[in-house]
Specification:
Layout: H1 2-16, H2 46-61, H3 67-114, H4 120-144, H5 164-212, H6 221-229
Helix pairs in contact: 1-3, 1-5, 3-4, 3-5, 4-5
């Protein structure tokens, strides 16, 4: 629930960020990181490309003359950049819990089978749950590998950013970039949550429900054996 609240807060911030009239501040905000030299060689690795994209974004955000908005934009970019890691970590923890639950279901089913119970339906459901968990883990791993950095390469101003018109163009371009990043990130995360994760939860629930339908599933093995020998 805390992660969901974070997403709602982030969504609201994106909607409101950069929407008000630009106010000029006397003091320019501190530039985060060194200015990127446009003549530097193109990055050859994913890590380098992400780093370059981030540096350019931070420098572009530092061009916002309203210090409060500049700092807010930088914090928002940081939050969006780390939200994917937060969510995928939560998903992994959830899948680990599902693994534990399925293990307990398997243990109870094994005991029931030893007591002469028919556990074929539960066995099939357990297999389905394990398959769903494995599929979800693959999806989570794939999602965790994605990077979400603010791309300001399309933010173009025809006037100097020190002017009112230039600031207006800058804010409009940044607002669009934030909205694009936000939409892409949340679309991917919700697809994972409402797809593989939801399917896995249902599969585990189904396995548990089939277990509960076995008559005397938790009957002690020793007691069952004694009754059979009487």
């Amino acid at each position: 629930m805390s992660t969901l609240r974070t997403m709602v807060i982030t969504s609201t911030t994106v909607a409101l960020m950069l929407s008000a009239t630009v106010a000029f501040a006397q003091e320019r905000p501190r530039v985060v990181g060194d200015r990127v030299n446009d003549s530097r060689p193109l990055a050859t690795s994913t890590t380098d490309r992400v780093k370059v994209t981030r540096e350019k974004a931070m420098n572009r955000l530092a061009d916002i003359q309203d210090k409060v908005k500049s700092e807010m934009a930088i914090r928002l970019a940081d939050r969006l950049g780390t939200l994917n890691s937060t969510w995928t970590s939560r998903f992994t923890d959830t899948l680990n819990r599902y693994d534990t639950i399925v293990g307990k279901i398997q243990s109870r089913a094994d005991k029931a089978q030893s007591a002469g119970k028919d556990v074929s339906t539960t066995t099939a459901a357990i297999l389905s749950a394990k398959t769903a968990i494995a599929s979800a883990r693959t999806a989570v791993t794939s999602q965790a590998a994605k990077t979400y950095e603010l791309d300001t390469s399309t933010v173009v101003t025809t006037s100097a950013t020190s002017t009112s018109s230039g600031q207006g163009e800058l804010m409009k371009g940044l607002r669009k970039s934030f909205q694009t990043l936000h939409t892409t990130l949340f679309k991917d995360l919700f697809a994972l949550r409402d797809g593989p994760m939801k399917n896995t939860r249902k599969a585990v629930q189904d396995a548990h429900q089939t277990l509960g339908k076995i008559p005397g599933v938790d009957e002690d093995n020793a007691t069952s054996t004694k009754k059979l020998n009487q």
